[in-house]
Amino acid sequence: MSTNLKISNVTKIYPGCVANDNVSLEFNSGKIYALLGENGAGKSTLVKILSGVIIPDEGEIYLNKNNLKLNSPLDAKKNDIGMVFQHFNLFETLSVFENLIIDSDEQRESLREKIDSIMKKYNFSIDLDIPVLNLSAGQKQKVEIIRCLIRNPKVLIMDEPTSVLTEQETSELFLSLKKFSEEGILIIYITHKLKEVMQLCDEVAVMRRGKLISVSEIKNENIESLANKMVGQNLKTIKKKKAKTSSDQLIKITNLNFSSEDPFETNLIDINFSVNRGECLGIAGISGNGQSELFQVLSGEIISEKNSIEFNNNYIGDLSPQERREYLMAFSPEDRLEQAAIPQMKIFENVALNNFKSSNFFNNGLINENKIKEHSKKIISDFNVNTDNIELKSQFLSGGNLQKLIIGRELITSPDLLICFNPTWGLDVGAINYIHETLIKINEQNKSIILISTDTDELLKLSDKISVIHKGKLSKIMNAEEVTSEKLGILMGGAN
Amino acid sequence: MIKIVKRDQPSRAIFFFTPVLAIFLTLVAGGLIFFILGFKPFEALKFFFIVPIADKYGFSELLLKATPLCLIAIGLSFCFKSNNWNIGAEGQLTFGAIVSGGVALLFYEQEGFYILPIVILAGAIGGMLYASIPAILKTYFNTNEILVSLMLVYVSKLILDYLVVGPWSNPEGFNFPETRQFSDSAKLPLLFEGLRIHAGIFLALAAVVISWFVFYKTYLGFQMKVSGFSLKTARYAGYKGKKMIILVFLISGACAGLAGVGEITGPIGQLHREISPDYGFTAIIVAFLGRLHPVGIIFASLVVAITYLGAETAQIFMQIPKYTGQVFQGMILFFLLASDYLLFFKIKFIGSKK
Q1: Is the domain of A223 the same as that of A244?
Q2: Is B22 helix (H, G, I), strand (E, B) or coil?
Q3: Are A321 and B235 within 8 A, CB to CB?
Q4: pTM assigned to the model
Q5: Dihedral of alpha carbons A381, A383, A384, A386, sign
Q6: Where are the alpha helices (DSSP H) in B187-323?
Q7: Of A180, A206, A231, which residue sits at a domain end?
């Protein structure tokens, strides 16, 4: 009995972003399919639609020619679509067995037999009676898989399953997946890791910015060709003019380390780089590889060793963001609404967040509202923020205008170095262009930029030098002309 | 047909209207309760809310009760605005009273203009010390300030109990659980002959003005505001978030401590077991009813103070327990929280066509 799953013209639009743009795909059992794409490419949205978590705005899903209406995860289960999410949905304090029977209405005894036979068949060895919290990540994933297998699924979807696994566990997983496939289960494997696609899958569908880019057989592809498709051709034509090569070093990072107590943060390992005046250093990477930690260490939100950061011949590793600003550094964080600005406060109050002694926003501990307002008006006119009311709460600015306000706030004091993190994330094309032009302009004024971004096109367009961050480590620093999107894609995936 | 629609943004007008609505609903519900108990609702409400403040003595009593409520609520507004849930003001009040009472007892049978300022200062410091415990535990050991500050209330009450029964009890007091009367130099002066209202009200008014000034005019207030909205932003801007947390606790503790001083050096004049009818807890209601705004808190403290007086009048004239006052306080908070729903949702009436 073969299974045919068809996605037809699926579109899902979120405010300000088209997550899935008219995607059509067809899958047949007996093969393992890869769904490949960068963060934000729309692959997670697509599988959430398949598993009933998200309801698409348009489009249909057919399983063996039957039109499915998936309004909830329960509907997906009823239609034999199983899904293992990247983050496990298990009750840590309940036993493995209790976790497995929780959403089943079968008899306990018969279920136990069934689970035992599944485990035997696929060589899983897990003690059913110990609490889930004692299991390793790989074992937890097996529990999730067993939970799907109990229902005899026709389709099994795995969402970035190896992100938490060791090498050993990964190869075990691949063996199981191949076995499932031989038995007629249709496997859809979501990932951004190119090596795994080559190793495991038969066919690959590549997504980029919500659109389906290509569907092809693995035997016709190689890592470079896939990387190219995933990241997109870079548009060298609108790349900025090469800055005059300057050897005047502005910032130097030496042996910078950060280890976090928070398991959801990435440790930074032995970071070394330097940026000269007038240069833009781009740092590429798939999100969650230490970018946010690197930004915080550079901005001073996380303090490091004094000597690890040398800026303009001063050691500033132990200074706070406020103190670093006095040395003419400026920062534009990724999260506009929760970090760079406070939506509930007025525009001019948000301007006061970047405060220099010389700007006189606060005299003797008192707020100098006139000064702040004057300054805010200048930012609004200099940086094309589309409003004339600085008393407006900033939540009423569009993303693009808010970002212009933030970049303007950081730049109007003409800093020597701007550190920005995903400055055009979620913006429309017009705003993106404006921000890009602004960044090119400050390089031309012999000011430097560190651009941490998950958007490869942006990095290739703006950077003079590029490095890739992967699991908290920086790759060697490359000249932008030598870099191709393929090479970046490979480095972002962790290969050398 | 009635339909509930989410608002695009919280309504400013509704923000100030819901406290009024809450008070109105409390009156309606209170009337209903009196009716069920077999009283005439309007007459009962008159006894509760109008009779107590009909004469100048009553009005003085109203201000007397409103003073500590206002003072504590102002302090709490610093904490609540920056998302620090200090609910132990009652304990900070008690500890402030203990420290200032101890100092006042040191000056027993002494006279001097300098005594009162020292006694007042001691109370503020006592409150601050006591508030610093949950603050430091929160910032350095990640404890939950709600639990710590609440539990410390009972600790301070037991300390007070021990002191007034044991070491500090009045040697000539026939073993009553109370200390000596403070000397006149350690007491807040009365404002009018024959009325109990005392100079403590100026402390409350000063707190109102200062808190308004700090919040709306100073860099410190700006930093507190930012830290309250988002600690992430505060860190990005370079503000010292932990210091800010400790600071708001200290301010709040100082205000509660001063309220304690006002009670023992004002109407009471000594330490005994029950120096506060839960002002520290009731002030939480006052702070929210006043929308954490200094001016709002003035009005809210007057409204809530009436429930204390009304409960006493009702006990005398209608023979119902004075705990009715707490019922009213609870209802005010209940209706306030309920009507805050209107901040985010609006009710639409859609005429059905036939």
Answers
A1: no
A2: helix
A3: yes
A4: 0.69
A5: negative
A6: 200-217, 219-229, 231-237, 241-263, 279-289, 294-318
A7: A231
- Best of A338, A369, A394 to disrupt the B interface (most B CBs within 10 Å) is A338
Q: What number is the average pLDDT over the span B47-76?
A: 93
Inter-chain touch A342–B232, beta carbons under 8 Å? no
Indicate the residue among A231, A255, A285 that finishes a domain.
Answer: A231
Which chain A residue has its CA at the smallest distance from B213's CA?
Answer: A366
Same domain, A334 and A292: yes
- Spatial distance between the Cα atoms of A313 and B171, rounded to a whole number of angstroms: 72
Is residue A46 domain-shared with residue A101, that is, in the same domain?
Answer: yes
User: For A184-198, how does the pLDDT look when each residue is reduced to its tens digit (9 = 90+)?
Assistant: 999 999 987 788 888
Q: Which residues lie closer than 8 Å to B261 by C-beta, 6 or more apart? A: B96, B97, B100, B119, B120, B122, B123, B124, B188, B200
Asked whether residue A163 falls in the same domain as residue A276, the answer is no
**Does the CB of A391 have a partner CB in chain B at under 8 Å?**
no
Per-residue pLDDT of B139-180, as tens digits, reads: 888 899 999 999 999 999 999 999 999 899 988 888 888 999
CATH number of the domain enclosing A278? 3.40.50.300
Q: Does A366 touch chain B (CB under 8 A)?
A: yes
User: Do the chains contact at B233 and A340, CB–CB below 8 Å?
Assistant: yes
Contact assignment for A345 to B229 by CB distance below 8 Å = yes
The complex's ipTM?
Answer: 0.73
Task: Tell whether A446 lies on the interface with B, counting CB pairs under 8 A.
Answer: no
Query: What pLDDT score does A239 carry?
Result: 53
Are A378 and A279 in a shared domain?
yes
Residue B278 CA to residue B116 CA, distance in Å, equals: 25
Tally of domains in chain A: 2
Q: Best of B8, B236, B244, B247 to disrupt the A interface by mutation (most A CBs within 10 Å)? A: B236
Whether residue B237 and residue A321 make contact (CB cut-off 8 A), yes or no, is yes
Minimum CA–CA partner of A346 in chain B:
B226
Q: How far is CA B243 from CA B85, B87, B223, B234, B246, in A?
A: 16, 19, 11, 12, 5
Say if residue A322's pLDDT is above 70: yes
The predicted pLDDT at position B225 comes to 86
Domain range for A466 is 236-492
CB–CB of A340 and B237 under 8 A? no
Q: Which residue, B67, B38, B18, is CA-closest to B301?
A: B67
Type and span of the H or E element at A330: strand A329-332
If asked whether residues A277 and A378 sit together in one domain, one would say yes
Pair A222, A264 in one domain: no
Q: Which domains does chain B have, with CATH numbers?
A: 57-305 (1.10.3470.10)
The whole-angstrom distance between B2's CA and the closest CA on chain A is: 27
H or E segment to which residue A488 belongs: helix A485-492
Indicate whether A241 and A227 sit together in one domain.
Answer: no
- Which residues, numbered 153 to 212 in chain A, qualify as contacts with chain B under a Cβ-Cβ cut-off of 8 Å? none
